[in-house]
Write a structure and sequence with these properties.
Layout: E1 5-9, H1 14-24, E2 31-36, H2 39-48, E3 59-62, H3 68-75, E4 80-83, H4 94-114, E5 120-124, H5 127-130, H6 139-143, H7 147-164, E6 172-178, E7 180-182, H8 191-198, E8 206-207, E9 211-216, H9 217-228, E10 236-240, E11 243-246, H10 247-257, E12 265-266, H11 282-288, H12 307-320, H13 327-339
Parallel strand pairs: 1-2, 1-4, 2-3, 4-5, 5-6, 6-10, 7-9, 8-12
Antiparallel strand pairs: 9-11
Helix pairs in contact: 1-9, 3-4, 4-7
Length: about 350
């Protein structure tokens, strides 16, 4: 029997790497084709874990997702597409994020529609876009937002591009919308993921006053893998959420598992009035770091990884692939990308 070919975009990102591992670890794995930006991250992932070794043998297309020609070649002949590419490189600015997140989505959709082989598409959304109100699709206006707000809004726009493309029924679409991801396989973490590296150098003493919903990247990858390998009659939207937890509780558990007894103190909410002065967050950050990001409806019904284990495995990964040797390095890393 012919093995199906699945194209995975964003294959070296946090979730993309977990999806690749999930698919390659299955009995009778599919022919996995990777759309990646550079080979170096793929080599690092292949070296990071014995279960990642099969990545070396995967067919791959090395290109920028904004480059139409190579994207078309990557999609050609695929039976399914998993679109997990989404840039969080806030320091490159809002126009760049739009060109990658929205422009890249358009290129993927155009290529899918030009191909007769693709029957199944899985789009990786986000919990904020799952029930979010429609955003103004004026890209000029969105490009004037802070980079952090642009990232959130571009996810919603990309999602609507995929949804609009299914109107003629040429392929089936699943949208899997995770909350905040934790777990291994993250080579280039965001500011949230970097804290798991930071806590190895000393306790986290302060935290924002709000809370978030966290889910293990491996549980989300398992659901994505199931979606990519099953056909159905209509669009499915899956909210891949996990545990609601205050950042005080989360940081405290990170401290404990890193060997510290410190209980973090909440940063006074009034300090976030100054958030608009922070380059990459702008006015959006004022509420972002004050409001809870909880998910009040049911998320993943079956999860293999409890929160404590997810934190432990994330810290274990950070120990194997440390980003910093001194706390000052973390401060500079954070300031350079998000504040300056």
């Amino acid at each position: 029997m012919r093995r199906p070919t699945i194209l995975l975009t964003g294959a070296t990102g946090h979730l993309g790497a977990a999806i690749a591992k999930e698919l390659l670890g299955r009995p009778g794995p599919p022919n996995l084709r990777l759309l990646i930006r550079n080979e170096e991250k793929l080599r690092k992932l292949a070296n990071s874990d014995p279960a990642m070794e099969p990545l070396r043998a995967c067919e791959r297309v090395v290109t920028d997702i904004r480059d139409v020609g190579p994207v078309e070649r990557a999609v050609a002949g695929a039976d399914a597409v998993i679109h997990a590419c989404h840039s969080h490189e806030y320091w490159n600015g809002a126009p760049y994020l739009l060109s990658v997140n929205v422009g890249g989505a358009r290129n993927i959709v155009r290529s899918i529609r030009a191909s007769s082989s693709v029957k199944k598409v899985v789009f990786i959304g986000s919990y904020s876009a799952h029930h979010g109100a429609s955003f103004d699709d004026d890209l000029v206006a969105i490009s004037a937002c802070s980079a952090r707000e642009c990232s959130s809004r571009s996810k919603r726009l990309a999602q609507e591009i995929f949804r609009a493309s299914t109107s003629d029924g040429r392929f089936r679409l699943d949208i899997v919308s995770p909350s905040y991801l934790i777990g291994p396989f993250q080579l280039e973490p965001t500011y949230f993921g970097a804290l798991f590296h930071r806590v190895l150098l000393g306790p986290l003493r302060w935290c924002p006053p709000n809370g978030i919903n966290v889910v293990d990247v491996r549980d989300v990858a398992r659901i994505v893998g199931q979606c990519a390998t099953t056909l159905h009659m209509c669009e499915r939207r899956i909210l891949a959420s996990g545990d609601n937890i205050s950042l005080r509780e989360l940081f405290g558990e990170m401290n404990r598992q890193a060997g510290f007894t410190t209980t973090p103190r909440r940063v006074p909410s009034g300090l976030f009035l100054f958030m608009p002065r922070l380059k990459q967050f702008g006015a959006f950050g004022r509420q972002y770091f004050r409001n809870n990001h909880y998910v009040d409806e049911g998320g993943l019904r079956t999860r293999r990884y409890a929160l404590a284990q997810s934190i432990r495995d994330t810290l274990s990964w950070a120990k194997r692939w440390p980003m910093y040797t001194r706390r000052s390095e973390f401060i500079w890393w954070f300031a350079e990308r998000y504040l300056l």
